[in-house]
Amino acid sequence: MTHLDQSVTAPTPSTEPRLSFSDVEMVFPDGTHTLTDVSFDVHPGEFVTVVGPSGCGKSTLLRIASGLETETGGTVVVDRSNIGFVFQDATLLDWRVVKDNVELFAELHDMPQEERSQRSQHAIDLVGLSGFEQHYPRALSGGMKMRASIARSLMMSPPVFLFDEPFGALDEITRENLQAELMDLFVSENFAGLFITHSIYEAVYLSTRVLVMSNRPGRIVADIAVPFDYPRSQDLRFDPAFAELAGQVSHELRGAH
What we know:
Layout: E1 19-27, E2 33-42, E3 47-51, H1 58-66, E4 73-78, E5 83-86, H2 98-102, H3 104-108, H4 113-126, H5 142-154, E6 160-164, H6 172-189, E7 192-196, H7 200-206, E8 209-213, E9 220-225, H8 240-256
Parallel strand pairs: 3-7, 3-8, 5-6, 6-7
Antiparallel strand pairs: 1-2, 1-4, 8-9
Helix pairs in contact: 4-5, 7-8
C-alpha cells in the first residue's frame, strides 16, 4: 500500500510553539560566524528537519536549543527543564545493561524506583527492545544501541525532542527501519521534533517541514512543507510526489552553497 492509499490523521500542531528561534546569531570566541538571522518555530505535532552544507551550523542549532551553547544574538524560547536529545552516537554507558542505561536520566531526576521501572519497560517496549533489558551495549547492534538511546530520552516524556543525525552511521536497511519506528513514536507522543540530517530523502520521509540552510554563516533560505499523511509507508519513497518534493529540497540546497 502506498501513501496515496492511506488516510491517517497526523498530529495536529498547537498554536503555541515549544521551540522558537528569533533572529539568532552565533559567533564563537575565535571569530567564527556560524549562524545569522535564524528564525523559526517548532510546535507540538511538528517534526522539523534541517538540511544544509557541512559546517553551516545545523548541530549548533541543537546545542543552542539544549543550552549546551549560548547564542550571541537574538532570542531562543524553550523550556530546557525537559528536553530529549539523541546524539550521533548512542552514548550508552558500557557498564550498565539496557534497562539501567534507559533509566539513567530518571535516576538523575530522583524518580521513584517503582515509577522508573514501569516507565523504562514502557520505553523499551516502544522502541522494540523487549527481551534485551539485561544486555550490555557490547552485545547490541548499532541500531539497537540507538533504540536504547531514544528510549532513555523517552523516559522523561519530553515535549521537545532534538536529534543530531542519529541514523547517519547505520546501514541503509537499519536506517529505514528506525526512521519508520521514529515516525510511529512521533505520532503517538506528539512531541515537537527538531532533526538534523545530511540526507534529503530522510528529511522528506520523516518531516512535516524541511528547513534548508545556507553556507556559513548559516541562515534559513527555504521552509518547505511536507504534505504526506502519517504513518508513511516505505513505498512512499518511490512515489512521484515524493521524488518531486525531494527534488525541490535538493534544488534549494544546491542554491544554498
